[in-house]
Design brief:
heterotetramer, A alpha+beta, B mainly alpha, C alpha/beta, D alpha+beta, A: alpha+beta, Cytochrome-c3 Hydrogenase, chain B, 3-stranded antiparallel beta sheet, 15 helices, globular, C: alpha/beta, Beta Polymerase, domain 2, 2 domains, 5-stranded mixed beta sheet, two-stranded parallel sheet, 18% strand, 4 iron, 4 sulfur cluster binding (chain D)
């Protein structure tokens, strides 16, 4: 009998496939994982503490830096919670613009996921193809609000910029282009036997586990729970539009891939519908010059590409929040990782971790 | 002849270095084009000096030996890995006359010597005293040993047809038809197995950067690292040459275009093989380690045995036997 | 006033953002500009400038007080004395007493009947005297909210998770607030079978911030309790692995407490 | 197996597509007008209202004013105006609140230096940064007004 020994392997915080500064302390037996302890907090910037000293307008640029892949949704989360507490009316055009940007941002975010996930699995070209299409979206955002990642676009009561001339046309062109382009992705990725082999049957968890770990977004939907805040706790004007909530069947990573590809389609559909009804109009509601939010407490969740992005605000009636807490979906989703990795091969680690789709800026707040 | 005997290897070595330099550039260019970008284009016209600059950087870098490493083995490993890679080139017939060591068991020599490299890799992996490199080294040992078997078995069919292990004879036997046609199954097996032997995507598990950072050479820097890279690309050179000789008719011309010299034909076919290696690399994700082993033992090995069996049968069938 | 200046004023009014303060500040910093002329570094000057300007606006100089508990509830509850169980502490003033001018009879919330029934059932539970309050948070989509004492939290959590009438399997949000008088663990739950949302506010003593862990009831609470411990200093008893999660293990203090002062070795 | 070939087909097809990269340092990157770059500051227009410093989320703006040297004029003139680009996040809030458009965004974004101290930009530097000034600064203004949305 050979003498074997368990090895303690530190994966991260600098590692190519931990998607940022996540550290995983892994106990391995050969290449089989026995135990995983995720260590987070390397990117903790104390957003919640900082927010206590900032006015509601000033918080918005900070939210850009939480989930930096879909900053529009973050903007919206805090703006939405504030508006809820103040009982503000937001003009229709502003809400439509918000929806267009949020849905485009979801497409961009899922494209990043597909690209980086394939990169984790060792394929390089899909990554660059995804980034090319994402680039188009970022350029559209750049035209709209002057930044490619840190948008700082939404304001309490509306949005900062109206769409520039011809912008909506460009969005429509992109939507039509992207709907066709998805076929190329399926040609390149979905049929690839190696990809199927790598992703099929790994990272499976049950519905009960998913609920207990409070997973949200595609990580929850993949277990077959059709739970989407855009429909079930409708915010903005989503109730006006038709879209499906794709759910998974087997719950493995392959399912997540297909689910996110379908979500891209659905998002494009929503954008298309919004473009059909958007009209000229004001983009800012009637907002007092100094935002003083009435005393009270509010929690609202919005559907970010990663799941339920919530914002819990406690206000004492001043122009700064008494307490602001973000329910960060990546933080919740990452918790299930040790459960999933027990007994898996180390090559499955990246495949499963990638499948969860975490953004470390968000995990660490 | 004596002069050639001594100078030849030096010329070959220089040629080889030239090839490696431009193979790396070519690889980056091809992958760049596939990904809608120009590839390296800053150093020199069309980026021609990019690799030279990279090599110069590697040579100028500080030579780091990790404190906990086994110093002697750590330094020895790149040499063990590189020398066999260079030695196997002796038997490759580039043209009728361009061959350094023409002996009867060339193919056997090639396969035997090339498997020594794995010892170098394993030594380097172990001597680094790093967990990632150890995992990479173990993977690469398992992988290379497993894939050597289908690799060898796939060429048995050719050996049976020609009745010789001499690469010259094998090339000359393809005057009528290249072996890629009658031995297509063998060609597929050989191509896949050689990809695995070369540790290239989709079989680049030993250095899978998304899992093991850089695999067996994670602790190597500077010149020692360059040696591993060199060994890898020399193997690309050797394997592409071997594929050309075995399946694509070596220096033999196509459509009777004999006015084009043999070496050009060789280079053309050779470049095609190299290009397809790069092309596959740009497209495929990486296999998982257990699937990789299963693939070798459960798919490739039976298939290559089947190929031997089929070859033996076809050789006995009157009409078909003319191809074999 | 020249035409240009007029235009400027108009523009200022057109913007939504603190237009009028501009003029006030202008006057405020006029004095200050003279004062700081003799100062040496621009940073110092700026600090003073901002401070003065802030005083003018009443942002920083006025003491930042925590939201009043009663008023929070009042703002969001409607007068519903009849339906609220009698054990509710009498200390909670009615809105009528507080703000008579604004008082107008609100429509009963659509969630009120549900909450009333729910509370009646909760009363049957052991230790239900710890239920301090139950109200509807109107601003928050009529969210039914319970206020409980920390002793009862674990019993309540088990009930909420397992009882067939509740089945709150899903933790939407797990937060904590420092009210200076006490701490509060805020949990927002969702029940998939009943499609109900529920907010639970667990009052925790500030000096001895201890509350039972619910990490074994909801897996999602595990890291969230670690986060609350790390940043708010609430100790969750019975937690399997109560370590700091965001900050380093050597960190001193709990930053989200309102009285937190960064520990600096140099000082 | 067929899927693998399909994928190879996609990559091969992409080889002939036009390149999408920018030849960046050699050719400037085209940015839209609304791009949020380094601020341009015009001391003439500044009324020392302090709003930009107040609204700045990172407190990177330092400013002081003094009495107008011309005794007949009311108001104040700016004396010191610094932006610390080590912490400035180019969030655009300062230009948004500025009532006189004394501080506006430009389309320049190249800030890299070898020293952190170089990132501390004073009024003169900000004033000289007058290329590619953003045309459209306040979209909340009615369309057609100066600086308003088009």
């Amino acid at each position: 009998m050979l003498r074997t020994e368990e090895m303690l392997l530190n994966m991260g915080p600098q590692h190519p496939s931990t998607h940022g500064v996540l550290r995983l302390v892994i106990k391995i037996d050969g290449e089989i994982i026995r135990e995983v302890d995720p260590v987070v907090g390397y990117l903790h910037r104390g957003t919640e503490k900082l927010a206590e000293d900032l006015t509601y307008t000033q918080i918005i640029p900070y939210t850009d830096r939480l989930d930096y892949v879909s900053a529009m949704t973050n903007n919206y989360a805090v703006v939405h919670a504030t508006e809820k507490l103040m009982g503000l009316e937001v003009p229709e055009r502003a809400e439509y613009l918000r929806m267009i940007t949020m849905e485009l941002n979801r497409v961009a975010s899922h494209l990043v996921w597909v690209g980086t996930y394939l990169l984790d699995l060792g394929a390089m070209s899909p990554f660059l193809y995804c980034f090319q299409d994402r680039e188009t979206i970022l350029n559209l955002f750049n035209e709209l609000c002057g930044a490619r990642l840190t948008y700082n676009y939404m304001r309490v009561g509306g949005v900062k910029w109206d769409a520039p001339e011809g912008w909506l046309q460009k969005v429509e062109e992109f939507v039509l282009y992207m709907q066709k382009e998805l076929a190329t992705y399926h040609d390149l990725i979905s049929g690839n036997d190696i990809f199927l082999q790598r992703t099929r049957g790994i990272g499976i968890y049950t519905k009960e586990q998913a609920l207990s770990y409070a997973l949200s977004g595609s990580n929850l939907r993949v277990t077959g729970v059709p739970w989407d805040l855009r429909q079930h706790q409708s915010y903005s004007l989503y109730h006006q539009f038709q879209f499906e909530i794709p759910t998974g069947e087997t719950g493995d990573v392959l399912d997540k891939y297909h689910l996110r590809m379908q979500e891209i389609e659905e998002s494009l559909k929503i954008v298309k519908q919004v473009l059909d009804v958007i009209k000229e109009g004001p983009i800012m509601g009637k907002v007092p010059k100094v935002l003083r939010v009435p005393e009270g407490e509010v929690y609202t969740g919005v559907e970010s590409p990663r799941g339920e992005l919530g914002c819990h605000i406690v206000s004492n009636g001043k122009n700064k929040p008494w307490r602001l807490k973000f329910r960060r979906p990546s933080f919740y989703n990452l918790q299930i990782l040790p459960e999933l990795l027990k007994g898996e091969n180390i090559s499955n680690l990246v495949a499963i971790l990638g499948g969860i789709d975490i953004i470390l800026g968000e995990v660490d707040g | 002849m004596d002069l050639f005997f001594y100078l030849g290897p030096i010329i070959l070595m220089l040629l080889l270095l030239g090839f490696v330099t431009y193979a790396i550039l070519f690889e980056r260019k091809v992958i760049g084009w596939i990904q809608n970008r120009p590839g390296p284009n800053q150093v020199g016209p069309w980026g021609l000096f990019q690799t030279i600059a990279d090599v110069a950087k590697l040579l100028l870098k500080e030579d780091i030996v990790p404190g906990k490493a086994d110093r002697a083995l750590f330094k020895l490993a790149p040499i063990i890995a590189f020398v066999p890679a260079f030695a196997i080139l002796a038997v490759i017939p580039f043209t009728e006359s361009w061959q350094f060591g023409d002996f009867a068991v060339g193919l056997l020599y090639y396969i035997a010597i090339s498997s020594i490299t794995i010892i170098g890799i394993l030594t380097g992996a172990w001597a680094s005293n790093n967990k990632y490199s150890l995992l990479g080294g173990m993977r690469s040992a398992a992988q290379m040993i497993s894939y050597e078997i289908p690799l060898v078995l796939s060429v048995v069919g050719i050996v049976m047809t020609t009745g010789s292990l001499d690469l010259n004879d094998i090339v000359l036997a393809q005057k009528k038809v290249w072996f890629i046609v009658p031995q297509f199954l063998a060609f597929l097996i050989f191509l896949i197995a050689s990809l695995a032997e070369l540790n290239r995507t989709p079989f680049d598990l030993p250095e899978a950067e998304s899992e093991l950072v850089a695999g067996y050479h994670v602790e190597y820097t500077g010149f020692r690292f360059a040696f591993f890279m060199l060994a890898e690309y020399v193997y690309v050179f050797a394997m592409a040459s071997l594929t050309t000789c075995l399946f694509l008719g070596g220096w033999l011309p196509l459509f009777g275009l004999t006015m084009i010299p043999g070496i050009l034909w060789f280079l053309l076919k050779f470049s095609l093989v190299v290009f397809s290696l790069f092309w596959i690399r740009a497209t495929m994700p990486r296999l998982r380690v257990d699937q990789l082993m299963q693939f070798a033992w459960k798919v490739l090995l039976p298939l290559s045995l089947l190929n031997i069996f089929l070859t033996a049968i076809f050789k006995e069938i009157p009409v078909l036997s003319s191809f074999y | 006033m020249s035409d240009q200046e007029k235009e400027l004023t108009q523009e200022t009014k057109a913007t939504n953002i603190m237009g009028e303060e501009a003029v006030k500040n202008e006057e405020a910093s006029e004095e200050q500009g003279v004062q700081t002329l003799s100062n040496t570094t621009s940073q110092q000057m700026n600090a003073e400038a901002v401070k003065l300007a802030n005083e003018e606006q009443g942002i920083k100089s006025s003491p930042n007080t925590p939201p009043k508990q009663e008023s929070r509830e009042n703002a969001v509850t409607k007068p519903q004395a009849a339906s609220v169980p009698p054990k509710k502490p009498a200390a909670t003033p009615r809105p009528a007493a507080k703000k008579p001018a604004e008082e107008k009879p609100l429509e009963p919330s659509r969630k009120q009947p549900w909450l009333d029934k729910f509370v009646v059932k909760l009363k049957e539970l052991e230790g239900s005297e710890h239920l301090e309050d139950a109200f509807i948070n109107r601003a928050n989509n009529d969210l039914p909210t319970l206020v409980v004492k920390s002793e009862w939290w674990r019993t309540l959590a088990l009930h909420l998770r397992n009882h067939p009438d509740c089945q709150f399997h899903y933790v939407q949000n797990f937060s904590s607030v420092d009210y200076e008088t006490h701490l509060e663990v805020v949990v927002h739950l969702f029940s998939f079978p009943h499609k109900e949302r529920l907010g639970v506010l667990v009052k925790v003593d500030r000096a001895e911030a201890k509350v039972d862990s619910v990490a074994d009831i909801w897996d999602a609470a595990n890291w969230n309790e670690r986060e609350a411990y790390d940043l708010m200093g609430i100790i969750f008893e019975g937690h399997p692995d109560l370590r700091r999660i965001m900050l380093t293990d050597q960190w001193i203090g709990h930053p989200l407490r309102k009285d937190y002062v960064p520990y600096d070795e140099g000082v | 197996m067929f899927g693998l070939l399909k994928g190879l087909g996609v990559t091969l097809k992409n080889m002939t597509k036009p390149k999408v990269t920018y030849n960046y340092p050699a050719e400037p990157i085209p940015v839209p007008d609304r791009f949020r770059g380094i601020q341009h500051f015009d001391a003439e227009k500044c009324i020392v209202c302090n709003q930009c410093a107040l609204v700045c989320p990172t407190d990177c703006i330092t400013l002081t004013g003094k009495r107008n040297p011309d005794p007949e004029k009311k108001g104040k003139v700016i004396e010191i105006y610094d932006i610390n680009f080590e912490i400035c996040i180019l969030c655009d809030l300062c230009t948004e609140v500025c009532p006189t458009e004394a501080i506006v965004m430009t389309n320049n974004f190249e800030l890299a230096t070898y020293s952190r101290d170089d990132l501390f930009k004073n009024m003169q530097w900000l004033h000289d940064n007058n290329q590619n000034i953003r045309q459209e600064n306040m979209s909340s203004k009615p369309p057609g007004a100066a600086g308003g949305a088009k």
